[in-house]
Amino acid sequence: MNRQQGQTAIGGVFSVFSINVVTRIVSYARHILITAYIGLTGGLDAFFAALSAVGIAVMVFGDIFDSIGVPRLVKARIEGGEAEFRRTAGVVVRVAILISIGCTALLSVLAPVTPWIAPGFSEAQKSTVVRFVYYLIPMAIVYLPYHAMGSVLRSLRQFKAFYVAELLASVATVGILATWHTTVTAVPVAWSAGYIAGAAYLFLRTRKWIAWKAGAGWGEKKVLWDFARLLPIYLVSQLYTVVDKTFGSYLPPGSVSALYYGLLLAMAIPSLLAVENIFVTPLAESEEKEQVLARILSGIVLVFVPVVFFFFRNSREIVSILFERGMFRDVSVEMTAGALQYYVCALPALAFWGLLVRFHQVQERFGDLFLVSLAGLFFHAILNYLFGFYLGMGLRGLALGTVVAAYLLVIGGLRLPVKSGAGLPFRKVGRLVVLVTMFSFVAIVTSEFVPRSMGTFVSLSVRASLFAVIYLAAIFRFPDRELRSITDEIVWNFRNTFYPGKWRAGKDGQ
Q1: What is the C-alpha separation between 76 and 86, in angstroms, rounded?
Q2: How many CB atoms are closer than 10 A to CB 477?
Q3: Each residue of 318-349: pLDDT tens digit?
Q4: Distance between CA atoms of residues 499 and 433, nearest Å
């Protein structure tokens, strides 16, 4: 049971990997256009501040659908059959529409006060923030129905269909930016158009699964109550990104954008693997949630620790290859690489925190989770000021404050299962951390022997290949039972993704 649930979870990751790769490439093209034609400017800073304002007012609810919608829909499918599933899907989508209307109306009224997010901006930048909030209103209207319909697909394990919607959204955004890029105003307009395109596709894919007519019981009340219980937790999570922008607004123009792109690159691997969205379904289905969570944690350590080593050492080269063109010049590279170098250190903590949130919500530990999140936000703000301004580290200090706060957050979250008597195998996971750290260190030291005189792209490619070969050889050849169990599981799911008939038959025959 335990091993099967782990395989189901990891298999979900590989099942969406190919479509997600294409989606991320197109999304990367969107940012290439923005940075090349506009650069890290005060106007782009204003856009990301406006995006944070929309996040607080509307996008925070989208994350809640992953926690409420998917487990509720999975339960309806398993216990009530298709009719109950369609009724529950209708409730979730109708609630999304109701909340979307209310929150968007509130955002429209409060738009003039949204520049409080970035108090260090000039008056011109603050006016631009307000204008961009209005340009993002169309996105705000469809954002919640978009995620509600996405939760319907994910509860049915149709992960690929959901990421096709994200691909269409990115394609629409790229298309607009490719034809209109003379002003930063094009960015919020293209953002809104992309979400409208993605929402239209999701509607076509999910309409047969949704009972649009409300029943006599009006189940929306229960869903709304669950939303009210979860809102403080997710609102605090949204405020984490606002803290960086608030302090970043006092730094030179382009700093807020550099922080955004540094975090974007640091989170590239988790978003590519769709860790949170894929694992919420097996967590909801399994009766042995602690064992599944421990298995996933081991996978996170195995994948993300080596990424931390490689990105930390090669952050400047990575940023240069990806973005250094057009208006994105050497100063922009240095700023973004500085943010990336520290943000990536938080990668294992940020990836696991998302799963911890899902775990505690499935267990309905809302109060404890909120207190841990609130304490983490407090430390995040204190550490940002300490490293960024008091110690004079500037932009790098803000990223470092985020790293330390992320690990404090995970420590607090891990104490909750222990407190409730759950049996997470910390000793096994800790031993795995030590092994993976040793392997990563050896791999990064060896890769440093590759000369940098070959050119940035060639040199980085060779170093990356050598690093990967040494690390993979170590984890597959080291004689450790637990390590071998996890690697065998990953290999089976990888093979099953590309050769499903052959490898499924072989596995079933064991």
Answers
A1: 9
A2: 10
A3: 999 999 888 999 999 999 999 999 999 998 88
A4: 31
For residues 280-290, one letter each, b for 16 or more C-beta atoms within 10 angstroms of the residue's C-beta and e for the rest, the string is bbbbbbbeebb
Give the C-alpha separation, 296 to 305, whole Å.
Answer: 14
Q: Of residues 188 and 302, which shows the higher confidence score?
A: 188
- CB neighbours of 413 closer than 8 A, spacing ≥ 6? 353, 356, 357, 360, 369, 372
pLDDT in tens, 345-379: 998 888 888 777 766 666 666 677 788 888 889 99
Indicate the SS3 state at residue 212.
coil
How far apart, in whole angstroms, are the C-alpha atoms of residue 170 and residue 27?
Answer: 5
194 Cβ partners below 8 Å, 6+ apart? 139, 168, 169, 170, 171, 172, 173, 176
Residue 129, H or E segment = helix 123-135
Confidence band, pLDDT 50/70/90 cuts, at residue 133: very high
Interatomic CA distance for residues 175 and 194, integer angstroms: 9
**Size (the chain), residues:** 510
Contact 355, 279 (CB under 8 A): yes
Average pLDDT over residues 129-157: 90
Cα torsion 366, 428, 403, 275: sign: negative
